[in-house]
Amino acid sequence: MDTIYSYSVNTINGETISLDRYKGQLLLIINTASRCGFTPQYAGLENLYQTYRNQGFTVLGFPCNQFGQQEPGTSQEIAGFCDTHYGISFPLFEKIQVNGQSAHPLFNYLKSAAPGVLGTQSIKWNFTKFLVDRNGAVIKRYPSMTSPNMLQKDIKNYL
User: Fold this and answer.
1) 75-90 burial code (b ≥16 CB/10 A, e <16)
2) 27, 28, 36, 106: which one is catalytic?
3) Which of 57, 64, 83, 95 has its CA 20 to 30 A from that of 71?
4) Which one, of 23, 138, 17, lies nearest residue 7 by Cα?
5) Given pLDDT bands bounded at 50, 70 and 90, which one contains residue 119?
6) CA distances for 88 relative to 18, 40, 93, 140, angstroms
């Protein structure tokens, strides 16, 4: 059986890493964008990370420009925006695609493991979230409008 540990990704600084470095942690994986109506969720995501990281919780942010061209910047611009506006300290990764033929294999796995409404696999918008257990299995998918604060009960339950 596949887990997220089967995949490698590029950090926002261009370093290729295996997601197995996060073994044993509860993860929240999100496709993000800097110019979206949901962008203020960065503050709540950082708060979750700060609140629960010492208990084995990590947020992983994957910028994506597929929805309304709301993440047009370079990796440096994205990192600078996240730091300046939200003080983001959780791991960010290089911009990726989450849908279509060029979708990153990690997101293809996440979508198949936790389909959306009516079994659809496509991600509908920025800030779709996937909660992944400490063994690398996808627990749940949350739509964009689910605020980070609304995830606390599930995070506490799985920590």
Assistant:
1) beebbebbeeebebeb
2) 36
3) 57
4) 17
5) low
6) 21, 12, 12, 24
- Domain span holding position 41: 4-158
- Residue 126: HSE in the Cβ half-sphere, 13 Å Cα cutoff: 23
CA distances from 95 to 10, 62, 146 (A): 9, 6, 22
Query: Where in the chain does DSSP place strands (E)?
Result: 8-10, 16-18, 26-32, 57-63, 129-132, 138-142
Whole-number Å distance between alpha carbons of 125 and 78 = 18
Question: In whole angstroms, what is the distance from residue 18 CA to residue 14 CA?
Answer: 13
CA distance 125 to 101: 17
| Residue 116: per-residue pLDDT | 75
Q: How many domains does the chain have?
A: 1
Query: CATH no. for residue 101?
Result: 3.40.30.10
Tell me: the pLDDT tens digits for 89-114?
Answer: 999 999 999 999 999 999 999 999 88
User: Per-residue pLDDT averaged across 123-138, rounded?
Assistant: 95
Q: Structure tokens of 146? A: 């689910």
